[in-house]
Amino acid sequence: MNHDPRIILLAHGSSDRRWCQTFEKLATPTLDSVPGSRIAYMELAEPSLETIISEGKNDGITTFTIVPLFLAAGRHLRKDVPGMIEELQDNHDVTITLAPPIGENPQLGNAIRDVVTQELERQKQPA
Amino acid sequence: MNHDPRIILLAHGSSDRRWCQTFEKLATPTLDSVPGSRIAYMELAEPSLETIISEGKNDGITTFTIVPLFLAAGRHLRKDVPGMIEELQDNHDVTITLAPPIGENPQLGNAIRDVVTQELERQKQPA
């Protein structure tokens, strides 16, 4: 099935397997409800962005949208990722769009408020 | 007003003012709805955790809960922040609880799914 654009949830990546597992859990609701979506890591973990773009191209997909699982844009999103995208577009003859980091969407601020409210409720309960 | 425990939303911090502004926006729904809550930075930006604990103590608050605005626990949350907490508890005679990073709460995964769905809708609209 060709799902254009293919959504790629991009996490930083870590050599710590527990770190990656948290991101896999975070990605699950998206992977379950958005056909063809994938998770990829910028560095230090697999699958890499290169792997996911290459697989997509083999499936006939030519447009990709990267949604960064970052709360804010720092050096990685302002410089490193755009550089990787330019190279991947050239090498694989695909079009890649970089969406804003998830933390720039107001939904996230509301989710944080709900997490804090839950934490306060949890603390009120007898141990 | 004494709001015990005082909720502290802890972000990493950055010398890039835009980075901090994103976190201030992310914190706004919580700061608006949880009385006495504050944002603090681990490093590279103000207010520091030390500043916020010290201010709280001056307001008569002795218990604090830190909710990390991190998607997953890496070295900072496993080692650096617990070390800072131990020192702050000793220096200010307060009790500080470290909550799990926001990304370990399933709410966040659902918010990410909603952000992706919005991004796909946005791309479908004529420019």
UniProtKB/TrEMBL annotation, chains A, B:
InterPro entries: CbiX-like, Sirohydro_Cobaltochel/CbiX. One of its GO terms (molecular function) is lyase activity. It comes from Marinobacter orientalis. The keyword Metal-binding applies. Keywords: Lyase, Metal-binding. This is CbiX/SirB N-terminal domain-containing protein. The lineage of its organism: Bacteria, Pseudomonadati, Pseudomonadota, Gammaproteobacteria, Pseudomonadales.
